[in-house]
Structures are given as structure tokens and as C-alpha cells.
């Protein structure tokens, strides 16, 4: 199929706002509103406009690829969930006011699932009976619901949000622990590919329950948790739980210490606040015993299934990354999340020469599989200064100016992270855009 | 990235059922349960297991590509919708018991959106002010909710379902009519690419309102509408509205007639029942006047925006296509919707030779962009007869048997639509799988 459709700012719906409401106090909230990414439909309820939808879909693709690579399978579970399921687990009571509840026309009671342990365990109980079906890793990427007391900070704490939740089913505690290690490693790979500063933090198990739990935190000053990070190994601990970091971080001195200072000269601990974007729980048989999720082992003995659950807040990650990476000019997306990677902006009144050069460059870049659908034209009747400022505000990593002087050996490239113009050939630009270092895949064993 | 992950029936979660519940009377419902595609979580509430999720995602990709090609942009709108929005349009009352309603912890009232005219018009009212932002086509692919009195037939009539809904905004009635024609043509292209018998039917405007409306129906005996189809031009009419077909079908004789018989010898009208899978409405200014969605034209005059809305029931299409295409052995997916296009099945005990040949064939096929992630290995310890029967039950279009006799010049290929073995080389097979005719893109102007 030849290219019949160009992404172009002429037609894209990116309604930039000059003023944002006063209640938008978080930088990420202000920038996502100003940049035409989100629209508030109600308290804690947001529409994702086309630019935010692109970022979420890029996140979904990246997460899907990494989860599939460890043998996970995607499914869809209903949001409307029978009260009886949540009564069986005891969470119908426990969840209190945070659960949205409703009745159907016949008076039957339901909740909008905040999480799907009950549903997926009932499903597995009904469909799995043999050890040959295990291990089984099922995940979903769907809206979930929580009736927050104080929704705030835009997508950081809202009432309808896009989650990736994975539920794992193993035939023994040992296998479930191996799965836990595999998924935690997978989460680290996902966050490394995003290229934002994050840490793995030992955590409490809370309402979900279980015996082992980690959080994944993105460093940002608006975060609710005060953490100590080791920048060398991406480990961290809550400031009240410094022992956890000393156990986990190879850069700590061997003797336990309760001081929040680096225990050895070779390590680089810093304190920061963090935003939780992911959570891993080893659940054991907490839910499988309730819903009778069991299997016959190779000796035809009945055994309970061992579970884990693993969440990633996809819309929350948008805001968390926007908190972690921005400046006075606007958003700064990592390559792996950017709605577009390159904007090609014409300078001065359009003519045949510039039109041809813009489109030719678009096709060269867009034909690279890793850049497909990630290039956008900006041929609006607007000054180059204004176009660059727009591009920097919405956080596009690279902008190329195309004027009458255009020469494919000497592109004018502006990176979002610098103010200097870079001079390079089309070939050099393509090779820069395709380099593993830029996509953060160089250091983590991608073939 | 080299291939590290193979799709394989060894690991895929495809829980085949031998017996289906008695209340599952529709063929599609029985087959989707038997084939391990869906699991019932409650009345009118279904989980999409990995195979159904694959079919829905393929549908989504196809629909997304066609909608983007006419300049549409994807967004996400919240399901939880403020009562006041629906009161403004009058539908809070009109929708009656079909609307799921709920209250939050503070007692504020909401519904779960069955459709998003109110939300998207309020959004456009708030973010669009100039003719330069028009036309604007916004679409979403999300779960929607309807509290059906009698949920039945699996995904055909359920209470939580995946919809593609598009809302279009134009600056004049004339432009809105041109948009209407463009989207209706786009829908026809989508259904042609699926390769299932369908028809465009003039329809009532009902609760949504507006001045012009068409339905898209897939022919199936379980459908609720009795239709007369012209098989030559894919037009159809409700049997009570034969005049509509006579107006629309170029194969009708020019003189109006109320007889349900073909009015001319050259046409081929047949009667059949149909399942509605798509609906188009020209809305005019019905919603824009309510929500004050207006713009300033080139002369700075304030004008109401002209709207259209266009639905496609994505999960419903799964069931509709399964109704339209199946036989006693199971499902028959069109290439464009199949969860996998080719199953590569080993014959007899696995050995190094067969393992190598299976994987090599997998890589050759999977490396074609149009077949990427659509190939599956079947190396289970099971008779070839059993593997073929499984493959036919879940509806995979082609199965290749790989035994010790394997010869890349003479593959053993079994098509789902025939019982005969076909003998062809790998090269011929690849060329068959990539032919535009098989993907139904040959006759509809794809470059």
C-alpha cells in the first residue's frame, strides 16, 4: 500500500490552551492541558485527546511486546462485576467507599472493577483443571475504576484510568516465585526502555494481600513517597525502611545501618520523592482457595494454584513521566513514548520545492519500521520560531526545519533536549533515530 | 530484534469445551464457547479469552487503518458520564431502564455511557471555536454499556460490549453530508475487506435522532431484521420498505414496485435475515445546539456545528461473522479477522528434523509484514487428525502438516474451506497468503 495519508499539524486535533484552571497545580496536569493532550469531563474523569491516545498506545505496544516475550497472553475482562464474587473474597466490605457500586434493572448488585483478582480467579477455576495448562499468565489493558476521595493532579489520581494488570497462575510456590522474579525483571526492562529515572521498592502488601510485594516508582518531586534511591542499580527503599535498601543494593556496605546516608563510598544514594506506577504482589493461594482454583498434578493429586498479580498504571505513567521530565518550555517525552518522534516544519510560504522536500523526508523517515506513523508534518502558515516553540511545548523529541536552503546533506535538526541546531545528513539523522542507545535497548540484551 | 518467542498451541490458553450450556442456542455462541474464545462472567457479561482478543485486535487494526485514511483521529472518552450532560440532551429520561446508573461517594449521579454524543459534543464545544478546526472526525474504541432486558446469543446482545464510535463535526450541512458519504463508503470498504456478505440498509433514526441513517447488516439467519438484498451492489432494504431498495439499487427497474421480487431480470435480489453491525446517522445540529458547539466562520459569524455519528459493534461483529460463516466442524474466520492465519502442525513424535522445519517455515511466513504474529505452531503430542480437527474448530484458515517427509517444494496445505489437501511450494504458499484477492483488497482500489 503506498502512502496516502500524512500526519500533519494542519489536521491534527491538538487544542493548545493558553490558560489552565487554577486547580491544576501539578506541572504534568498543567502541561497536559496546555499541550492539548487531555480534557476534563468531570471530577477525576478525563478524555484522552489524540496526542494522549498516541502516547498511551505507544506504551501499550511496548508493554505488550515485553509481556508477550515472557509468554503472557492478553485478554479482556468485564468492568461490571458481580457483587457475589467480591463478597466471596471479602473485598465487597473491605473496599468501602472506594468501590463504585451499581444495580441493574432487576436490582442485582455489581461493582465497577478496581482490579480483577476475583473475576480472573473464577475464570481460571472454571477453565483450568490440569497441570498441563500451567503456568498461565493472563493480562488485560482496560479502564479500571476507583471512587477517590480527592481526585487530583490530572491523570495521576483520577477515578477512571487505564491499567495493565497481569494475573499469573503457577503450580507451586517455587514456580510462582520464579514467575515473580521474571515479571519484576520484565517491568525493569519496560521502565529502562522508557529511559526515565525509576526504582524498584520493597512494599507492603495492603488490601490486595500476599507475601511479597514491590513497587515501581518514577522519581518526581510531586510524589507521595519519600524514597532513598541507589542510582547505580535502580533499587530504592521507603525512607522509613532503609534496611530494605541495604539488603537489596549491592552498592551498600555489608553492615546494616539505619543512617539514610550512603553506607559506602562507591555508591550514590540520593533521596527523592517517587510516584508509584507499578506494583507486583506474590499472592500465594489467597484467591485460589476462595474460588477453588485448583489443578490435578502429574500424579492426579489436587493442588491449589499459586498466584501473582502485577499492575502498571498506563495513564498514570503519562503524568508521572511528564512530572519527571519537563522544563519551562513544556513536555519532554522519551523516544519510546513520544506521540511523534520527528516534526518536519516548513519555513516561510510553502512552495513546490519545500513541499516536495518535506514529503520526501517524511517518507524516508516514516518507512523505517521503528518510526512508522511517528513523523508529523508542520506546514502551517506560522513562523519557524512559533513552530519550534509548539513542537517543544508538546514534547516532540526532534524538529527539522525545511526552507528554500534545504540540502539533504545538511539538515537543520533541533533536539528537544538542547537549544542548539545540529547539522547532519539525512543518512546520519536516520542512523541517529534508529540507534539502540536512543531507544534504550542497547544495555538490556536485545538481539 | 531476532525472534525469541513463537506462538505455540503448547502454551496458548485455548480452553476447548466439549459441552456448552443449554441456554447457548445461537451457533456463534456455542462455537465461541466450544473453541475457547469467550467465558461468561455474568448475565450479558463476557471475558474475551486470548483467541477472541486477537480477533478483536485484528478488527481494531483494520478499522483504525481505514478510519485514519479518511482523516479520523482516535481518542478515549470516560465511560462514567455525568447525569447533567444526559439531562441536557433529554436522554437521561428517554433511555429509561437501558441505561446503567450509579452514584459516587458524594451522591452525585452518573451513567455508564451507552454512546458518547453528549460527552464529545461538550468536549468540542469547549475546545473548538474556529472554522479552521473543522472538519473534525473523532473516534473511540471502548467498552460501552446497555442494561438489556434479555441479554442473549453471547456477544450478539450483551450488556458490556466493545464499540467503535465516531463523531464527526463539519461547518455546514453540505460538508456533513459529504462526510456522511465518505464514512459510509469507508464502512463498505471495511466490510468488503472482511469478505463476509453484508448490506447497507436505509434505516430509522430512532433514539439517536437526525435526518439520515443507514445500517450495515451481515446476513445471518439468526438476525432480527428481515431484509431484501441485492447481491450485486450490497444494497438492501427492510422487507417493509422495499421502496428504499428500489431507489438505491441500480439493478432495480426504474418503475417503483411494492413486490418483493426482483424488478428486472438482470438483478439478483434475495431475502435473508440480517444482524446489524454498523449504523450511520446524520445528526444535523441536534446535539450542537444543546451543548453550544459552534464556531466562527471565515467572516467571524457564529455558526452551529453539523454532526454525524457512526457506530460499529466490534465484539458483536465477532458473533455476527461466526453466525454468517461456520459449518458442522466449527468456525470459519475470514483472513482479515482470523486469530492466526496458518497453523504449522507436526506429525508424529517430534525430532530435530521436524522441529527445524516447523520453525523455519514459521520464520519465513511470520517475517512477511501482513502475516506477522499470525502464525502458530502446533507441536503437541496429538494425532494429525486431531490437530486438523482442532484447527478447523477454532477456524484457522490454513493448516500445514510437517512430517518426516517434509519437502519445501511440496507442502501439505489444508484450507479451512475445503477438505482436500493442496500440494504447493513454500514460495507458492507465501504468494497465495499475500495475494490481494485473499485479503479482499484487490477490488477496492488499494495501491
UniProtKB/TrEMBL annotation, chains A, B:
Pfam families with a match to the protein in the record: HGTP_anticodon, tRNA-synt_2b
InterPro entries per the UniProt record, alphabetical: aa-tRNA-synt_IIb, aa-tRNA-synth_II, aa-tRNA-synth_II/BPL/LPL, Anticodon-bd, Anticodon-bd_dom_sf, Pro-tRNA-ligase_IIa, Pro-tRNA-synth_IIa_bac-type, Pro-tRNA_synthetase
SUPFAM superfamilies: Class II aaRS ABD-related, Class II aaRS and biotin synthetases
Domain Aminoacyl-transfer RNA synthetases class-II family profile: 54-334
Catalytic activity, EC: 6.1.1.15
Superkingdom of this protein's organism: Eukaryota
GO biological process: prolyl-tRNA aminoacylation
Substrates-to-products reaction catalysed: tRNA(Pro) + L-proline + ATP = L-prolyl-tRNA(Pro) + AMP + diphosphate
Annotated GO MF terms: ATP binding; proline-tRNA ligase activity
Keyword list, A-Z: Aminoacyl-tRNA synthetase, ATP-binding, Ligase, Nucleotide-binding, Protein biosynthesis
CDD domains tied to this protein: ProRS_core_prok
Enzyme class of the recorded protein, top EC level: ligase
Cellular component per GO, a single term: mitochondrion
This protein's name: Probable proline--tRNA ligase, mitochondrial
Organism of derivation: Salpingoeca rosetta (strain ATCC 50818 / BSB-021)
Amino acid at each position: 500500500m503506498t502512502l496516502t495519508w500524512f500526519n500533519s499539524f494542519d489536521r491534527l486535533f491538538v487544542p493548545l490552551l493558553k490558560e489552565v484552571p487554577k486547580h491544576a497545580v501539578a506541572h504534568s496536569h498543567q502541561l497536559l492541558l496546555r499541550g492539548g493532550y487531555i480534557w476534563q469531563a468531570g471530577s477525576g474523569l478525563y478524555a484522552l485527546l489524540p496526542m494522549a491516545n498516541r502516547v498511551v498506545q505507544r506504551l501499550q505496544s511496548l508493554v505488550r511486546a515485553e509481556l508477550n516475550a515472557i509468554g503472557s497472553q492478553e485478554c479482556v475482562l468485564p468492568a461490571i462485576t458481580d457483587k457475589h464474587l467480591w463478597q466471596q473474597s471479602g473485598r465487597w466490605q473491605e473496599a468501602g467507599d472506594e468501590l463504585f457500586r451499581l444495580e441493574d434493572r432487576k436490582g442485582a448488585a455489581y461493582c465497577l472493577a478496581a482490579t480483577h483478582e476475583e473475576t480472573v480467579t473464577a475464570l481460571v477455576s472454571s477453565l483450568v483443571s490440569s497441570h498441563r495448562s500451567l503456568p498461565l499468565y493472563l493480562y488485560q489493558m482496560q479502564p479500571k475504576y476507583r471512587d477517590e476521595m480527592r481526585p487530583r493532579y490530572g491523570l495521576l489520581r483520577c477515578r477512571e484510568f487505564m491499567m495493565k494488570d497481569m494475573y499469573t497462575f503457577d503450580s507451586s510456590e517455587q514456580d510462582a516465585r520464579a514467575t515473580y522474579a521474571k515479571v519484576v525483571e520484565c517491568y525493569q526492562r519496560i521502565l529502562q526502555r522508557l529511559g526515565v529515572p525509576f526504582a524498584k521498592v520493597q512494599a507492603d502488601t495492603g488490601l490486595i494481600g500476599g507475601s511479597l510485594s514491590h513497587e515501581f516508582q518514577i522519581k518526581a518531586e510531586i510524589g507521595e513517597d519519600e524514597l532513598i534511591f541507589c542510582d547505580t542499580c535502580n533499587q530504592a527503599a521507603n525512607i522509613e525502611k532503609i534496611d530494605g535498601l541495604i539488603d537489596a543494593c549491592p552498592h551498600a556496605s555489608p553492615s546494616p545501618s539505619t543512617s539514610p546516608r550512603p553506607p559506602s563510598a562507591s555508591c550514590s544514594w540520593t533521596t527523592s520523592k517517587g510516584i508509584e506506577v507499578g506494583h507486583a504482589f506474590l499472592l500465594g493461594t489467597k484467591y485460589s482457595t476462595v474460588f477453588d482454583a485448583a489443578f490435578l498434578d502429574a500424579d492426579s493429586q489436587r493442588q491449589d494454584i499459586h498466584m501473582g498479580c502485577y499492575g502498571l498504571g498506563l495513564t498514570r505513567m503519562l503524568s508521572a513521566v511528564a512530572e519527571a521530565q519537563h522544563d519551562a518550555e513544556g513536555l519532554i517525552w522519551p523516544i519510546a513514548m513520544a506521540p511523534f518522534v520527528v516534526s518536519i516544519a516548513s519555513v516561510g510560504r510553502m512552495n513546490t520545492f519545500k513541499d516536495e522536500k518535506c514529503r520526501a523526508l517524511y517518507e524516508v523517515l516514516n518507512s523505517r519500521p521503528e518510526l512508522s506513523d511517528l513523523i508529523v508534518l508542520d506546514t502551517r502558515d506560522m513562523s519557524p520560531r512559533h513552530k519550534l516553540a509548539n513542537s517543544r511545548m508538546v514534547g516532540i523529541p526532534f524538529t527539522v526545519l525545511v526552507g528554500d536552503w534545504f540540502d539533504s546533506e545538511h539538515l537543520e535538526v533541533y533536539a528537544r533536549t538542547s537549544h542548539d541546531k545540529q547539522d547532519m545528513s539525512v543518512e546520519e539523522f536516520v542512523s541517529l533515530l534508529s540507534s539502540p542507545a536512543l531507544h534504550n535497548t542497547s544495555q538490556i540484551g536485545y538481539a
